[in-house]
Specification:
Helices cover 17% and strands 25% of the residues. By secondary structure, it is an alpha+beta fold. The protein has one domain (3-175): Beta Complex (Metal Binding Protein, Guanine Nucleotide Exchange Factor, Chain A). The protein has a 6-stranded antiparallel β-sheet, with no helix packed on it. Strands 2-1-9 form a 3-stranded antiparallel β-sheet, with no helix packed on it. Bound molecules: zinc ion. Zinc ion (ZN) is lined by residues 89, 91-92, 94, 145, 147-148, 150.
Length: 178
């Protein structure tokens, strides 16, 4: 169901942790005492089935948020959005970013200096070929929503500054009422 998305987007190692989770399942019960806090026993507040996610998000946002693709640069108009307002997770509506944290860069994704407090979590991610020259190092820190676990983007160091590089297709922008 993501054939078109697969054409435009490049898969990354989003499910790389699946193997580790499977190993935990077959380990002895005694290992449960050391599993606290690991991916195998963590549950996000918002949980939906694959069908529910696909119906809610649509093809492109599903591929990015639930399968870990990265959108093509400048494919979302939010990269150059400058209005005052708030940015919310498209998966669960959690307020992840604020326009006052935003940095507009001519790289084609949505950049923020930081996230809202207690709104995102991080994980280790594989190569992101869409970043081109920025992706010389294969390891990236992924940013995902604290409430629903949806993939939002990555942490990148650009000109010496650590920024959140977020897919516009993962966000709903809510401009402040004039
Ligand atoms: Zn979310």
């Amino acid at each position: 169901m993501t054939q078109n998305a697969a054409h435009d987007l490049t898969r990354r190692g989003f499910f790389a942790s699946t193997g580790a989770a499977a190993l935990t399942v077959v380990s002895s019960p005694a290992s449960a005492s050391v599993a606290a806090g690991s991916a195998s026993d963590f549950q996000y507040e918002v949980v939906r089935t694959i069908d529910e996610w696909y119906t809610q998000l649509g093809e492109q946002s599903y591929a990015i948020m639930r399968e870990g693709f990265t959108e093509a640069r400048k494919s979302s108009p939010l990269w150059e959005e400058t209005r005052v307002g708030t940015y919310h997770c498209k998966g669960c509506d959690l307020h992840n970013y604020d326009a006052s944290f935003k940095v507009v860069l001519d790289k084609g994704w949505v950049f923020f200096e930081h996230a809202q407090s207690d709104s995102v979590l991080t994980a280790i991610d594989g190569p992101v070929p869409e970043y081109g020259a920025m992706a010389e190092d294969a390891a990236f820190t992924e940013v995902h929503c604290r409430r629903c676990g949806s993939h939002l983007g990555h942490l990148l160091i650009i000109d010496g500054a650590m920024l959140h590089c977020i897919n516009g297709a993962s966000l709903d922008f809510k401009p402040e009422a004039a």
